[in-house]
Amino acid sequence: MTSTSLSLRSPASFPFPSATGACGHVRWVQPLPPKLFRYSLPPAATPAISRRLLVPAAAGIWDFLSGGAGGAAAATLAVRRGMQLFKQGDVAGSVAEFDRAIELDPRQKAYLWQRGLSLYYLDRFEDAAEQFRLDVAQNPNDTEESIWCFLCEAQLYGVEEARKRFLEVGLDRRPVMREAYVLFKDGGDPEKLASKFSSSSGGELFYASLYAGLYYESERNADLAKSHIVAACKSPYGSRSGDYMAFLASVHCQCRNWTLEG
Predict the structure, then answer these.
(1) Where are the TPR repeats (predicted)?
(2) How far apart are CA 148 and CA 114, in angstroms?
(3) pLDDT (tens digit, 9 = 90+) per residue, 158-190?
(4) Which of 127, 169, 181, 259 has a Cα-to-Cα distance from 153 of 20 to 30 A?
């Protein structure tokens, strides 16, 4: 889910903090060492293009990658600041930096999946869905952005309508994300996803737990969402990897006022 940037309308029955609540700026989170890249599994027969490796096909590609131009260099720094603020729990601050990056270098917008994640936690689901759709237009093999677009639109329109709008993408090389993609696209039992990878090592257990929990969130099942996302946070990968999505799981719990105890 990374680019080269170094890189719910909540119903009354599902009471999450609003954008001005815990998600806006969670001050008590301690930053961890930044490790920006995700785990990698052996490629499948038809691998997808990982967003970690995505190279933006845009004009001025060199200064986008290298920061050779003044505006692009400043925009890249703003993206890095935004990512760090998000990992520290300052979701609103992260969006401000991502928006600044776009002002400095408009080419950034089509690749700022990090901004889409932050917007989700500020309940700005329409803006977040737009961001994910822009990203998938650039990388049509991006499984996670397809799922996150669904999560946003499930909050806007309900699960049934969101599934009709589902962004179909290419085959992900990671078995756990292939399974998660089918679950979100076609519907099913998230317990099967979690169970299938319950004995896995590394990132598979984390990602299975995270996306099982997010599936339950889309269905307004707060208790089961909490159970799985807390489990993701407490997994070895979730607690020690430095993956941006591991930070996201922690921010998710903070925004929902969930503790990791018990």
Answers:
(1) 75-108
(2) 11
(3) 999 999 999 999 999 999 999 999 999 999 999
(4) 259
